[in-house]
Amino acid sequence: MLVWLGALVLGVVLGLPTIGWLDEVMNFIASVYTRLFQLLAVPTIVLAVITTLASLGAQGDSGRLFRTTLKYTVLTTFSAALVGLVLYVIVAPGNLPAGLVESTEFAGQSELSGFSFKDHFLSIVPNNIVRPFLEGNVLSLVLIAFAVGLALANIKRTEGIEIVVKALHGLQELLFKLIHWLIWTLPVGIVAFAEQLASQVSAGVAMESLGKYVLVIIGGNCLQFFVVLPLFLLSRGLNPVHTLAKMMPAVLMALFTKSSAATLPVTMETAENRLGVKSKVARFVLPICTTINMNGCAAFILVTSLFVMQNGGMPISFGSMLLWLVISVVSAIGNAGVPMGCFFLTMSLMTGIGAPVAIMGIILPIYTIIDMIETAENVWSDSCVAAMTDHDMK
Questions:
Q1: Which of 70, 104, 237, 335 is the most buried (most CB within 10 A)?
Q2: Do residues 9 and 109 lie in contact, with contact meaning Cβ atoms separated by under 8 Å?
Q3: Mean pLDDT for the chain?
């Protein structure tokens, strides 16, 4: 932890002067680490789900494990969105100047002009066994992994099937060895990520603020992170301070990669070796949580949707707030854990209802900070769900 924190401080110090050539070097290093973790994330998810389902199916407790995971996922995601809604009502962000909204053009709007929320969910259903791997479509891969895992769990264990299962377990062990090596060199990546962020802040890229809107987003994430999720842990007799201390490497990694999917290898390794979550639980719960347990995303979708609709002159009643509370939770569960996934999903929702999506272009310059905080919260929530599920399964 001291090495990680030292790397964090060093990166901030290097980034504040905004030196051109140094920024380019650090951006290159950060890109390399992000790509390496994305490379390992896809096979980690697929192998973890398949091997766990294959082994748990024979034990007869896979159904209970999945139900427990889903229960805590829905509860934590709903609570995050509810906290965001309550803060939005209390803080009551005002409208942006009309001239600013009208003068803002956002390229992403045209790209989504024909994209509906139904299309988003339809894209999850795979129609090609290879394409989800090539595109990194996490939800499609989870569906495929579930099907294969359940088939292996319910098929007669012939000699051929045993060879397949052993081969999958062998590939998983090999993968975890590669992850271990990558984590060992991670302080270099932390220096690059921290320098990248500090450089953006000093240059003013991430300092533009939308005032009360930002207060609601960040305040809601902080309340969920430091109050609500610890209360969930305390309700199961778990120490939140101990849990967070053990999972801190994964939370810090999520903060800088802005991708819970890319952070998954670190999250699984940390949960098993530092927090002490059983392997069969960690390797089943965490890949699922990475794709469906999006606390920060749910709050962002709800608050941003209300803010955009409000600026577009759309009526926002108590009933519509409750409706969007449900929509935000369902949308977050259907979102992939990749950088800016919540941003583009929210934009597609706003495009679908004819809201002034150009406002998303005004939010974009500060989304780097928001995305970092949301992803750290998502991984912390994944860790809490894994810890609570492991406790309940015992």
A1: 335
A2: no
A3: 80
Element (H, E) at 101: helix 98-103
pLDDT band for 26, please (50, 70, 90 cuts).
confident
> Which tokens hold the place of 229?
């999720």
pLDDT at 88 over 60: yes
Q: Would you say 274 and 180 are in contact if contact means Cβ atoms under 8 Å apart?
A: no
* Whether 380 contacts 225, CB under 8 Å: yes
* C-alpha closest to that of 267 among 251, 278, 288: 251
Residue for token pair 């920024």: 23
What does the alpha-carbon distance between residue 224 and residue 83 come to, in Å, rounded to a whole number?
A: 7
Of the candidate ranges 92-101, 224-233, 305-314, 332-341, the one whose mean pLDDT is the lowest: 332-341
The stretches of 185-210 forming alpha helices (DSSP H) are: 186-203
Sequence-ordered list of residues with C-beta below 8 angstroms from that of 19, at least 6 positions apart, any chain: none
CB 260 within 8 Å of CB 382: yes
More confident: 235 or 337: 235
Q: Cα 182 to the chain's mean position, in Å?
A: 20
The amino acid present at 80, given as its one-letter code, is A
**178 contacts 40 by C-beta, under 8 angstroms:** yes
| Biggest CA-to-CA distance, the chain | 71
Q: CA 202, 208, 212, 215 torsion: positive or negative?
A: negative
How sure is the predictor about 265, in pLDDT bands with cuts at 50, 70 and 90? confident
Percentage of the chain surpassing pLDDT 70? 81
Question: Which residues, 6 or more positions from 14, have their beta carbon under 8 angstroms from its beta carbon?
Answer: 22, 26, 191, 194, 195, 198
Closest by Cα among 286, 217, 283, 281 to 250 = 286
Side chain identity at 266, as an amino acid letter? V
CA 303 to chain centre: 17
